[in-house]
Amino acid sequence: MIIKVCGTRDAENIHALAELGVDWIGFDFRPDSPKFVRQISSRAGIIPDYGSREAAMGKETVQNESANGCFPQRFGVFADDMPQNIVTRVVNFKLTMVQLDGEESSVMVNNLRSTLDPDIRAGINIMKTLHIQTVEDLMQTREYEGTVDYFLFKVDTAKVDLNVIKTYSGSTPFIIGSVVLEQLDKLKAFQHPMFVGVDLDDCADVQTAIKALTE
User: Fold this and answer.
1) What local confidence, expressed as pLDDT, does residue 12 receive?
2) Radius of gyration, alpha carbons of the chain
3) Number of domains forming the structure of the chain
4) 128: helix, coil or strand?
5) Which SUPFAM superfamilies match (predicted)?
6) The CATH number of the domain where 152 resides is what?
7) CA-based nearest residue to 26, from 208, 207, 213, 200
8) pLDDT value of residue 202
9) pLDDT digits 0-9 by tens, 48-84
10) Helix (H, G, I), strand (E, B), or coil: what is residue 177?
11) For residues 25 and 3, what is the distance between their CA atoms, to the nearest angstrom?
12) What are the φ/ψ torsions at residue 120 (nearest 5 degrees)?
């Protein structure tokens, strides 16, 4: 199961999450978000060294690996942003995935992909966020099938019956978000051929943009 964490910007915290084996780590580029990541110097420990301990202490980093020898995929979260802003952050933060949280159309997604792939970031993945409460909400997926690589289904797991998600009949892999920690065991038992992971966002916060997870 993919473990996705979004909304961190502290170098030490990023490194600690990588050590735990988090699969995807995200940076929030929505200007109105309290977790907003500004364009910063690479000395700050996010780019290009990806939050190594050495960089967090203001020292030169010598390698880009965690203790287990690999790094999470890094993605950026955007909402109705200008394509050029997205492209700039893909380059500066070496993003391997873009998450679109706004009202972006499938046409916009296709245009963004053709701009990025292959000349700027070959093979970049694009994820579309959809808010799901009812079976009817899943109709939104039809516009993006064959256009995006993943869906992020924002579901209030404490209130919404996960059987709603089981009715999804598309062919695009999806992540379940808006997860509360108390529901993780329930999600571990969830089965669907396109279900690939969970998004631990606010539920992992100990303070703004700082995450606390255990194995």
Assistant:
1) 79
2) 17
3) 1
4) strand
5) Ribulose-phoshate binding barrel
6) 3.20.20.70
7) 200
8) 57
9) 444 333 433 333 333 444 444 567 899 999 999 999 9
10) strand
11) 9
12) -100, -50
